[in-house]
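[Automated response] Your request has been received and processed.

Submitted sequence:
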Amino acid sequence: MATKLLLLDCDSTLSSIEGIDELGRLRGPETFKAVEDMTNAAMDGGTPMEAIFAKRLDIIKPTKAELEAIGAKYIATVEPTAKATLDQLRTAGWKIAIVSGGFTQAILPLAAYLGIDRVEAVILRFNADGSYAGFDESCPTCRSKGKNVVARRLRAEHQATHVVMVGDGASDLEVKGDADKVIGFGRYAVRAKVKAGADVFIMSLDQLVGVVGWEAGSHRCKGANRRLGRLCKRAKVRGNHFGWQGIKFLIPGLGRRVSASGVRVQVQTPG
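Generated structure:
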């Protein structure tokens, strides 16, 4: 069976916050502003990730306890449609992983909450007393094009026939050459470069069902009705992908409309 792989950014995508910025907030407003500006410069595509990654951490020097607190904050600020949407796509056959320039130890609790068992992020190191001791520089996502490295590795590992990257930042857009589709995300931050360059741009994660869901939907409907499944695959998409809860198709030669909402398909004859 063909494997479909969905790769999701964490910060400002699965959660409303930027974890590194929240760590900066703990050091006062001036540090928060400096860190936030560096984060935005990288996410907007103006600064290479490697130019600011170590610098932000050296300014903050987060403790192990502070990082664990960010993990709890990720769950408290989870994108409101994420859990139901990912459950639906997982049931439809999508393999899901988090690919992030954030910190592994903070992201793991959110991943567990969402039922995601694969996290590709950056591991922070701490001394015995919990003080900051650096980060694992071998982690690909601490530098530009790092998510591309991960996307290629996961595609090969899963023998995936279809790879989709979802995220708000320039590092997600970079994956365009190594993913079949890049979906920009703008619920928490609309970045002009990402909006212009992404294959599709969405404002809520439940819109993923409309963007990639017809593949899942055709898989489910073929089980119930093989002929309708074949028609779903041949159908032409009408309209755009933004804000839809369902996608409408026009089936050639039948003059019928089919509404596919995720994995449920209904045939409607013209009134």
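Summary generated for your ticket: The longest helix spans residues 208-224. The two ends are 39 Å apart (CA to CA).
If you did not submit this request, please reply to this message.
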